[in-house]
Amino acid sequence: MEGPLMPESQLESDDQAFDLNNPEYYINRELSHLAFNQRVLAQVLDEDHPLLERLRFLLIFSSNLDEFFEIRVANLKKDLLMQRETSGMDGMHASEVLSKISQICHETIAHQYETLNTILLPALEAENILFLARDMWTPEQELWVKRFIKKEVLPVISPIGLDPAHPFPRLVNKSLNFIVSLEGKDAFGRDTGLAIIPAPRSLPRLVQLPEELSDGGDRLIFLSSMIHAHAHRLFPGMKVKGCYQFRITRNADLDLDEGVEDLARALRGELHTRRFGRAVRLEVADNCPEPLVNFLLSEAGLTEDDLYQVNGPVNLTRMMGVMDKVDRPELKYPRMTPSIPKGLTQKDNIFDSISKKDYLLYHPFESFAPVVELIHQAAKDPNVVAIKQTLYRTGTHSPVATALIEAARNGKEVTAVIELRARFDEEDNLELASRLQEAGALVVYGVVGYKTHAKMLLIVRREGKKLVRYIHMGTGNYHSGTTRVYTDYSLLSSDQVIAEDVHRVFHQLTGMGKTEKMEKVLNAPFNLKQKLIELIEAEATAAKGECDAHIVIKTNGLSEPSIIQALYRASQAGVKIDLIVRGICCLRPGIPGVSETIRVRSVIGRFLEHSRVYYFKNAEPALYCASADMMERNLNRRVETGFPIETTVLEKRLLHELDLYLEDDWQSWSLDTGGTYSRNRGDSEAGVQTQLLSHLAQ
């Protein structure tokens, strides 16, 4: 991996605004995404994970890679070439960036299918879990498939013969399709020899055979195998010479004009185009003849660099259904029950509890239920007069949405700031907005051009003769599903200074006016980045004064150039810097004279590391949790919040948990100067997530 961001002294310009179009920076950033995906794929080989969970990691890799092509590769194809050609930059050209990505992806995907075919499938077969190819069906199974095809598939499938009246169809993004070569003439005398079979999206891609046909285990058949075996039934009187599965990945990024008058209406229009955006990748079975492959490439407008010929299903992500179909608890992670602190159960008056002290919850080890219960109690409490909340990825019918609707119907002043442009959740968010509006809530969509990514809840309650505010601030989303698989912090507090800051952020989002001064809360795009740089620089000053200086940053991504430059300067001043970065990292540790005091590690385990924490040893307060990653989009083009952890007991606890991440030598990876990650394997018998499960969960 190439192109570390170098300190300002090694740049030609002293301008702190590092050129985001610099080829070295760009290639480094894009390949960092691939490096994270490769670390995910590596979990498949780790026998510390149960077998079906190893399969899940392989499928998560596929899902991540799909999004990488839909968004990052698509945008590279669309924008980067033009940007670099017009900027007159030297160095790596956009086409070279894409070529390098193609090379890495081809190697990694080949490794993925080899791992599936030579390691996972044999291991699953040893556990009596088989994915049956056509040549493995018994006569009884073959008869069952024939009946299934007749009953469930043939009534909904629509083959398309290719001729002048039926040109190559516009195929939906990532849909499963088949190209069929035919011999003979149809009823109208046509003999073009080619047809397309789009697999209905309503059909499961993986079908489980009934128990009596499964030989005491689990037998699963891919829909693609069924269609292959019975393709001839779709073309009566003609001979099927070949049937080959393929899938086209398209640009799925939405392109909204910032000058739109009605964001919701514009978004509804764009959602349809996402399904038919410009093609960026073609996946096809590796036994597909070259003439048919070239035909598909031509129709998709792609080159050989965009072609991925695979030895197995082209839609691996849809194999995720096996996790629900196969009931084998011993091959999955043990069940866990998140704990609930005293004072935050359904039996407690949560307002009374929060008024006495702050609570810090670490999900999923600790339950998200108290946050939902807080909203439910607010919806029913006659003393609550107003509820304000940001909603990014929440779910149309989630418990949080249900509670807000109940509150609005009960006459509370409910204000919901819904970020419609939360990628791939836009349709759900539009439906959620409609449901809230119908219940009487005030729904706003934030500020055009700035995604609202902050996670905030503000409840105003009348207590005696005064109004008291209660807040929840988090590092993750208000989605009950992700709270079970993402690690995130939640702060529940009645700190009136923080609550007033949250109130001001809501005013920014719903009203108009100049930015008001924040007392405790950090707020992007206004003061969050600058405050972080100031805190980093203050730590550098402390180190120069021979103080013990230490910075710990836990984030999902680190690519913001001015933050990286500040960390380089702090390292040169002698600050000890520990970075826990799950994904993209454009900083390089250990460069002599540049970043010798910086360590970078990535933790990958059962749960997706999602929490963001900033620690500055000589600052007051020293600890912040935040919704923001240290990336350009978060700090410059999103509404984000960072909130302090000021209670001594909570600060001590959070520092201990950070230490567990820094001491982990089992689930962690270390980044070296050249941009390569190496798995840490030490004397520990359990990684940080396992330890947190033991300490926090029930």
* Cα-atom radius of gyration: 27 Å
Question: What spatial form do the alpha-carbon principal axes imply?
Answer: globular
Number of strands: 27
Tally of alpha and pi helices = 18
| Poorly predicted spans | 1-21, 87-91
Major sheet: size, sense and barrel closure?
Answer: 10 strands, mixed
The secondary-structure class comes to: alpha/beta
Estimate percent helicity. Answer: 25-40%
Query: Approximately how much beta-strand content do the residues carry?
Result: 15-25%
Describe the structure.
This protein has about 700 residues and is α/β, with parallel strands linked by helices. The chain has 18 helices and 27 strands. The strands form four sheets. Strands 14, 18, 19, 20, 21, 23, 24, 25, 26 and 27 form a ten-stranded mixed sheet that branches. Strands 10, 11, 12, 13, 15, 16, 17 and 22 form an eight-stranded mixed sheet that branches. A six-stranded mixed sheet has the order 2-4-3-7-8-9, sandwiched between helices. Helix 1 runs parallel beside helix 3. The radius of gyration is 27 Å and the shape is globular. The N terminus is likely disordered.
